[in-house]
Amino acid sequence: MLIDRNVLRFIVLNDDPVLSALNKISSNKSGFVLAVSENGQLEGMLTDGDFRRWLTSTPEINLEAPISSVANSKCQTARIDDAPEAISTLFSDRIRAVPLLDDYNRVVAIAFPSKAEMSIAGRLIGKGQPAYVIAEIGNNHQGDVELAKRLVDLAKDTGADCVKFQMRDLSSLYGGGKSSDANQDLGAQYTLDLLAKFNLQADDLFRVFDHAREKGIEPLCTPWDLPSLEALERYGIAGYKVASADLTNHDLLTALADTHKPLVCSTGMSQEAEIRESVALLKARGAPFVLLHVNSTYPTPYKDVQLRYMDRLAEIAGGPVGYSGHERGWVVPVAAVARGACVVEKHFTIDRGLEGNDHKVSLLPGEFADMMAAIRAVEESMGVSGERAMTQGEMMNREILAKSLKAARDIPEGTVITDDMIVVQSPGQGLQPNQRSALLGRKARRAIEVGTPFFPSDLQDEVAQARPFRFPRSWGIPVRWHDYRAMLERTNLTLLEYHLSYKDMEVKLEDWFSEPLDIDYVVHAPELFKGDHILDLASPDEAYRQHSIGELQRVIDVTRALKKWHKRAGVPLIIVNMGGFSTSRAFPASARPALYARMEESLTALDRDGVELIPQTMPPFPWHFGGQSYHNLFMDPDEIAAFCAANRMRVCFDVSHSQLACNHFGWSMREFCQKVGPYAAHLHIVDAKGVDGEGLQIGDGAMDFAALAGALEESCPDASFVPEIWQGHKDAGAGFWYALDKLEGWMGTKATGRNAVGAGLRLAQGN
């Protein structure tokens, strides 16, 4: 049994709407919430099962109904001071959580029969969560409060989750022993001498803890004795570390367990039988804990680390395990994370030459930062063990490098396809070669020119077709020089969005246009220019930045020249991926103002007369021609709004890119629309999934388009749009027609009444 005192993530007010309870159940991932009154008294429990029963028994479903109308007011409870043995008898197949109440019927904790995770100050620790990384400062502050604070600041900068210290009441712990006592052996004399010089008193440590919390990093502490534990309880520490030396100290362990706070327990210096005995004690007391595999040698030889023992330790614990390392370097903790460590602890110092054993096995700030980056990279690379799926980058490279089935000769519509009509050639933009047998014997649903790829739609009986579409805002599709005329003939576009390559910049427009078109246009500037130059107006390399300015000026000149070929053109928009990317890791927030400043300087060097540059909102992990980079700018909605306001600019709001940013940073897409929408001149409407699945067909991702449509109607009703579906132009634009058919249901003329908008906004609140 485990007792969790972090109850806020399970609490909702009794008169909140049912929808709020459902959102909280989704976020806490425990399948229930507790409904309380304004003064915190328990009124009932709402589980997934309660909600399903309510759905099937209620004639009119109203998600705005108060939780009190759905919650079970007779749920099983216990008192916080009940014996753990008595509480554990309450669990059954039906009861998997028991609220623990104080004398005023207020929820103060929740008992679980067992849990695969625990939390420290709201940070979840367990399988599927990022490793909780502890910078063990211990006594490496040398008894100096200011050095301790500096170490806290440096640890925060590395990305550590926690800074840990140690507290000792020396008179209690060593029975008044002194380092000058000739009866002490050499090791004890050395330890007592260090502690006498470097031990911080409780009030000094509390000042350091306060500083850590102000900096946004959680302080934990190892109490080495009962007086220290009592002092830390008075302070209100969020959790405790149990030193290896105290795992068999059942008096202290019992006192720690009875705080019901999360415990991080080191197992060094203990036999397995002793570990099992202590685990049994912790479980009997209902303590949330994680066991750390440790070898308590300073430094530990690699041969003695024995990382595989973590697997056995997890069986003993029946819960999360971690690793605390005393070996040199940081490769072993990274390997421990790959083996499933949920917690990692390493000693932290500013100078390994300082006095004291711990310094010699400690990491310097730069090393700790490298370890953090490696741990997060390993976590990201672990992925899932299910069926393999191609990544977005692989799909892009497959289009270029793989082979596909193509027509070996002209094939009239209705012709039965035979083997001699098919050839395998690069690039891989059509059906893969393994689909050859599926293609044989089918009737060509279209006239297929020699060298043209066969597409998945050639295996389907029905495919999306172009038709007139009705939208209340200006709309179009992405085109190239070679296909814009064919697209114009197929449907009722009001604009064309020309996607230029650097080769398209070199053509004579007269070769592609014979007379002015009765239509508006937008230009999407190339991102890649000759010589593998990716446009970057914020580059710190002055020569590179000037090159980017020159290339973008060429785009502006071409855009101005296009105007005479478009009768309905006003001030043409130019969509620009402005730059600010990095290749090894994302920049810290503190570096972004300088990037924006260089970008603004670049804009002043451009002749923008007669055109409007609109930066595109960006994803966190852009795909640069088959490889992934990191973006830093035009992701944060507040930064975007501030940039637009300061520079009197508008943006191309790419909803796929921005949804990926929201997914990565945990932002609300509805709030993103509210902040960025008013600055949107043009929209890219396309689906998204995860943190880097961009440009997906409508319905292939995870976006809520009903909610999105309402939010866009509210925040940017006049912005034009295109469905920027990746490879939507293939097969005569089949991907675009499918997308527009779907979008018309949400964004079309018939879908833009006030009721539809209001429903969309309500739905978007859950995004």
3D architecture notes:
The chain has 767 residues and is an alpha/beta fold. 35% of the residues lie in helices and 18% in strands. It contains 25 helices and 33 strands. Strands 12-11-10-17-16-15-14-13 form an 8-stranded parallel beta sheet. A 5-stranded parallel beta sheet has the order 20-21-22-25-26, covered by helices on one side. The chain has a 4-stranded mixed beta sheet with strand order 1-7-6-5, with no helix packed on it. β3 and β4 (42-47) form a beta hairpin. α23 (705-715) packs across α25 (754-764). The longest helix is centred in the last third of the chain and has 21 residues, at 542-562. The chain is globular.
Q: What shape does the CA trace take?
A: globular
Fraction in helix: 25-40%
What strand order characterises the main sheet?
12-11-10-17-16-15-14-13
Question: End-to-end span in angstroms?
Answer: 34 Å
How would you concisely characterize the structure shown here?
The chain has 767 residues and is of the alpha/beta class.
Keywords:
767 residues; globular; five-stranded parallel beta sheet; single chain; alpha/beta; 35% helix; 18% strand
What order do the helices and strands come in, and which of them pair?
Blueprint (H helix, E strand, L loop, with lengths): L1 E3 L6 E3 L4 H11 L3 E5 L5 E6 H10 L20 E2 L4 H5 L9 E4 L5 E6 L4 E4 L2 E4 L5 E7 L6 H14 L3 E6 L2 H4 L12 H13 L3 H14 L2 E6 L2 H10 L4 E3 L7 H8 L5 E4 L5 H13 L4 E6 L14 H9 L3 E5 L5 H8 L4 E5 L9 H4 L4 H18 L9 H10 L2 E4 L14 E4 L10 H4 L36 E4 L4 H7 L4 E5 L20 E5 L3 E2 L3 E2 L7 H21 L10 E4 L15 H13 L7 E4 L7 E2 L2 E2 L8 H11 L3 E4 H11 L3 H8 L3 E5 L2 E3 L3 E4 L8 H11 L4 E3 L7 H18 L6 H11 L3
Parallel strand pairs: 2-3, 5-6, 10-11, 10-17, 11-12, 13-14, 14-15, 15-16, 16-17, 20-21, 21-22, 22-25, 25-26, 29-30, 30-33
Antiparallel strand pairs: 1-7, 3-4, 6-7, 8-9, 18-19, 23-24, 27-28, 31-32
